[in-house]
Amino acid sequence: MALAKLVAWREKDRDWLQSGLKAGLFSLTEMQSRLDRMPKSAPDGSELLRRLSVLAATCRLEFDRGHACSPTSRSMTHHDTETRN
Known about the structure:
This protein is mainly alpha-helical.
C-alpha cells in the first residue's frame, strides 16, 4: 500500500505516508528494498528515490539513497539490495 501511495504522490498520499512513517508502521528502508519490484508503469527508480528522500527530510528520518537499486537497474533483486547494506 505504501508503495502505491509513493507512486500516486498526491498531497493526501504524502500525508498518509508521513503519518505512517512517523508512527513506525513502515520504513523507508523497507520501501526502498522493494523498488525493484515496481511495474514498468511506475515512475523510474530515480524519481521514487527522490520521493523517499523528500519523505525522509519531511519526517526528519535518516535515509541512505546510496543503498538503493539504481534507477537504471530495476532488475536488482531484494537479496542484492540486502547484500549491499
